[in-house]
Design goal:
This protein is mainly α. It is 76% helix and 0% strand. Helix 1 runs antiparallel to helix 2 (27-48).
Length: 50
């Protein structure tokens, strides 16, 4: 279910959204990080059959 998937991705999304003031990440790196988090969510969905 979508709710289960969202719960499973919660920590990954929080980690993705947090950035230290001294940490400079350009747009392409940011998009790649988001892709990684979303790919993790797809893996969870496939593994659970959702």
């Amino acid at each position: 279910m979508a709710v289960d998937q969202a719960v499973d991705m919660h920590e990954s999304m929080l980690n993705f959204l947090q950035q230290r003031l001294t940490e400079a990440v350009d747009f392409d790196e940011s998009i790649e990080g988001l892709r990684d988090v979303l790919a993790q969510g797809k893996s969870v969905a496939v593994a659970t059959g959702v």
